[in-house]
Structures are given as structure tokens and as C-alpha cells.
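Researcher: I need the complex structure. Ligand is zinc ion. Inputs:
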Amino acid sequence: MASRAAVEKWLAELTHLPTASGMEDAVIGWVERWVSRRNDLKLSRDSGGNILITQKGRKKYSPVLAVAHMDHPAFVITAVEGHNASYEFRGGVNPEYFENARIEVVSRGGGTGTLTSYDPSSDTGTARIRGDVRVGDIAMWKMRKPRPRKDIFAAPACDDLAGCAAVLAALDRMRGKPELRHFGVMLTRAEEVGLIGALHAAKLQTIPVDTRILSIETSRALPTAPIGAGPVIRTGDRSTVFDRELTNRISRAAEAAGLRHQRKLMDGGGCEATAFGAFGYQTAALCVPLGYHHNRGNLDEFEEGLAAPVPMYEEISLSDFHGLIDLVVIAAGAVEIEDPILGSLNRLYESHSHYLS
Ligand SMILES: [Zn+2]
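Model: Output:
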């Protein structure tokens, strides 16, 4: 089993890679190298370029896939002329964060720029550039790093590269356990522009219809779901709720295992469980609370009109992150355990129905 330090190294590497919707190549390369060192795993790609990693050998149950996305909100340079560039922003961030903001190329050692315009209706704009900036470059905000604090991990792209690290760590831990051989991982593309990779997989059924989906995310921390209070069994997102039975099974198993966790509606954003659930897959969702969601520093204060919008590294709690790995492992085993709630309600009714007579 990989040590905590090894898993944290994967986390640090993945969350610092350049990535954007449709341009996840650096992450895909990292994952391919990771899988190539484990010959009991098999990597394939579906027709949308989503990555599927499964365990070799006979499986006792139908598949359970933990799904995380490989992209993160970023700028993609679309034209360069002299000291001016045009860009497309792939992701969702309030327009105020674009005003005179500074960006830097991250896909290779490159130049920097200052935004001169942004049109929220098309997610495009222009920038004044310095140094080497080329068409096809991925750029990010020039971001402030938060001061180091105990248990806090900060990086440019926790959403959802921390999710990718967590599902790979969970898979790594399940290797060599025949009863968990049905567990695999799907790493998707283009989530930040509308769950597109997940929609492709769900709509075209690039994975078997009897697959149970665990959508793994970092999700905006809420006053009721703070950073550091444990990983979250997510009952729903901004647009819908998730599978009752699967969620109940995971919740009971997490309680039985004594795992510190939260059970919450995380409605600060959407997640891929919505896509899979809508197309008929039995789907639950797990996440860790995320600070500075989409690199929006001062987010809560900014929304209340109390502070300026400043681009920042995203933050999660390391103990939440390790808890999420534990929770994914627990969930993979729990999907086959009958939800006891109907039985206990029946017993309750039988013993107490005399109150109605
Ligand atoms: Zn996101």
C-alpha cells in the first residue's frame, strides 16, 4: 500500500499540471505512466477520450466506477498578434475576477499577460502580452499562494485533480483484493464547460449500464460543510439529488466503519453525478470541501461586497483528502450491502402500530 507521503506526492504533482477543458493531455500522460507501473491494471479510452482504468481478472460483482474530471478552469490562447492576444476562458468564474487581471502561460515556460477585455456571453477576451505566448497555450491567473497552515493543502487546480489523486489512491489500495476487483476509475474530460465528458460516457453508454457510479469532487466549502470537518457524502448538487439507496448504503457503511465524515447537500456547484444519474446510472457522490473554488480568492467576502476579487490557489484539508480515499474504499465494498432502512422501518411499524388502534 502506498504511504501517505506517496499519495500526497501524487496529489501535489497532479494539482500543479497544466490542464483545461479539452486539453487534458498533461494529466493523461501522468496517469498513463502511473498505470504502466501497475501491470494488474488496464487502461483504455472511450470514444470521447475519457480514461477508464479497470483491474484485470474475474469480477464477482457488476462494476463500480469512481469518476473524477481531469480539467480545471483556464485560459486558452486562440490568437496572437504582436503584443496582443485573444483568449477563450474554459470554466465558470465571475466577470469581476477578469478586470485587469494578470495571467501566465502554464503549459510550458512562457510569457505573461494582462487582460484588456472579457465578454462573459462568449467567454472570450483579449490580453496585452509579454514574453513568449503562443496559440494553443494554456494560461492561468497569476495567483497568490496562501500562507501555509496546518492540514491545509493549496495548489492551482485542486478541482478536480485532487479528486483524480483520491480515486487513483483508492484504486491502488484495492489492488490484490479479489472481492473489490469490480472497482475501477473513470477520469473524464471537459467537465468545466458543462459535464461534457461525463455526458458523453452516460449518453453513449461507453460504460456498462449496470455500472454503479461514485462521482468524486472537490466542492465549494459551505458554512454547513466546512473544510477540515471530514469528507462529504454528497446527497445532491446545485441541480439535483442522487440515488437514495446507494447513498444510504455508503452512509451506513461509513458509520459502521467509524469514519469521520459529513453528509450534506453541496449546492455550491454541479457535479458529474447529475449527468450519470439523468441517463439512468445508479449514482452517488462523494467530495471534499474546497476553498477558493475556481481560484476565486476572497470568494465569500467578495460576494458580500466586502473584499476585492483576487485570484488564489485553491485549498483543501489533507485530513479530508485522506478521509475521502478511505470513504471511496468503503463505498466500493458497500454498494453490495443491502440498505437496512426498509427492514428497520418495518420492525418499527410492527412494534409500534398499536398506537394507531
Ligand atoms: Zn469546477
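Model: Summary of the prediction. The chain has a mean pLDDT of 96.
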